[in-house]
Amino acid sequence: MISSELETRLQAYGFISPGYHGHSLGSVLPAAAAALGQPEVLDKVAATTGGSDRARSAAAAFGLGEVDRVCVVLIDGLGLHNLRDNAASAPFLSSLVGDNTSGRTGFPSTTATAMGLFGTGSSPGQTAMVGYSAQDPVSGVVGNFVSWKDLGQPTAIQRHPVIFELLANAGVQVTSVGLERFADSGMTQAALRGATYLRASTLGEHVNAAAAALNTPGLVHLYWGEVDKIGHHHGPTSSQWRRALAHTDYEISRLYQALPPKTALIVTADHGMITTDPKSLIDISSNYALSKGVRSVAGEPRASHIYLNSPGSAIATAKRWNEVLGDRALVLAKEEAIGQGLFGTATKYAKSWIGDLVVAMTGTGTIADTTTAPPASLKLLGVHGSLTPAEVEIPILVVRT
Q1: Tens digit of pLDDT for each residue in 48-96?
Q2: How do residues 106-134 score in pLDDT, each as one tens digit?
Q3: In angstroms, rounded to a whole number, what is the distance separating the alpha carbons of residues 123 and 125?
Q4: Are residues 368 and 249 in the same domain?
Q5: Are 377 and 249 in contact (CB under 8 A)?
Q6: Over the stretch 230-278, which tens digit does the pLDDT of each residue have?
Q7: Are 124 and 220 members of one domain?
Q8: Does residue 376 share a domain with residue 322?
Q9: 330 and 357 Cβ atoms separated by less than 8 Å
Q10: pLDDT tens digits for 150-177?
Q11: 223 C-beta neighbours (distance < 10 Å), count
């Protein structure tokens, strides 16, 4: 739980708290399990997910009722603010937006962390998927949780049960539809294992595969990443992005029309996105007050993990960073971030992945070490990861047949 002290600080920076309970991304699959009559599978992981009580509560809050089939569509990068600001490009999805459709993702508001939260129902303080990238506590190398480059075995890092697997073991038919390259990816193995994986290319093919899978009772998951990809390169207010949204809206509408009776369709996202000016990026390497004592930088330009040569200096270094950055960023020492609940309740193992400093950028600002950051990441127009409402608030849209 986020401490009241941190809540106050977040508000002062124009932030909102991440969501690990209630209307959060982590409640979507527990709610689906309850709607399918299997809330008890969550009791095996009750300590970190809230068990069957949370599952039933979430299903009621989302208005799922009892159904034979649940289809969960996760649209990467389609935050609630992005959808509301572009309602004309998404008439079907916008028609589902109401007073009870706002959810929250975790921190950082990024795909790797969000998929851990989505797939397990547990916070990043449990899954150890604490950002876009992080420094491996054993090797000391910065590994990437999206590509799983320079990381160990997925199940050795993300050690919590996966809801797809729990449902499949209980006899529920669980199907996941996605691109070929995600079928056996590290992220899939870490957070989404246990489903029968159907490979598709275009969104139309994804929809057709999902519709066919729904001929059998059970759970179907469809992931689509093109909206996020185009948003990164062109910005989430661009004409290219609006066209991608319009196409996505059309295909999801087509999926809805193909649903059999007693089916619930849930449309959600992993995070939102804002537009930045790459020219305004703060370069850690060119500012000695920031670079002093830094061993490595991980995460992404909106939400960074800073690892120090002397971890014991974290509090003093965080103070110096806050003085340098002022209202451009919230900088927390590791123990402060963990103790005040930014990553949810954290295990000793997950703590070892978190930076000695945790940096959340305000407004539309970004920060990076330009000598080590992937060059492409420094040129992105659409970004996410921090705690502004536009990045944290996601749609949780529900419609039943």
Answers
A1: 888 999 999 999 999 999 999 999 999 999 999 999 999 999 999 999 9
A2: 999 999 999 999 999 999 999 999 999 99
A3: 5
A4: no
A5: no
A6: 999 999 999 999 999 999 999 999 999 999 999 999 999 999 999 999 9
A7: yes
A8: yes
A9: no
A10: 999 999 999 999 999 999 999 999 999 9
A11: 21
Sign of the CA dihedral with 174 first, then 180, 184, and 187 last: negative
> What average pLDDT does range 371-398 have in this prediction?
97
Contact 15, 387 (CB under 8 A): yes
- Residue 305 is encoded by which pair of tokens? 């993990």
Burial class (CB in 10 A: 0-12, 13-18, 19+), 138: exposed
Q: How confident is the model at residue 34 (pLDDT cuts 50, 70, 90)?
A: very high
Q: How many CB atoms lie within 10 A of CB 337?
A: 28
| Residues 231 and 288 grouped into a single domain | no
CA 33 to chain centre: 20
Residues 6+ apart with CB under 8 A from 186: 145, 147, 148, 151, 154
Q: Which residue in this structure is represented by tokens 């370069």?
A: 283
Cα separation, 135 vs 130, in Å, equals: 10
CA dist., res. 36 & res. 64, Å (int): 9
Regarding whether 176 and 33 lie in a shared domain, the answer is: yes
| Residue 385: band (very low, low, confident or very high) from pLDDT cuts 50, 70, 90 | very high
Q: Which two tokens stand for residue 336?
A: 């402060």
In CATH, what number is assigned to the domain containing residue 90?
3.40.720.10
Question: Mean pLDDT for the chain?
Answer: 97
Q: Are residues 146 and 265 in the same domain?
A: yes
Query: Running DSSP on this structure, what letter comes out for residue 77?
Result: T
Residue where the block lists tokens 């609006």: 242
For residue 152, the cross-strand partners are: none
- Please give the angle made by the CA atoms of 392, 359 and 339, to the nearest 5 degrees: 85
For residue 49, what are the domain limits? 4-274+388-400
- Cα distance between residue 44 and residue 160, in whole Å: 11
Q: Considering its fold, how many domains does the chain have in total? A: 2
266 and 286, same domain (yes or no): no
Predicted local confidence at residue 47, as pLDDT = 81
> What is the end-to-end Cα distance of the chain in Å, rounded?
36
Distances (CA, A) of 163 to 122, 333, 343: 10, 32, 20
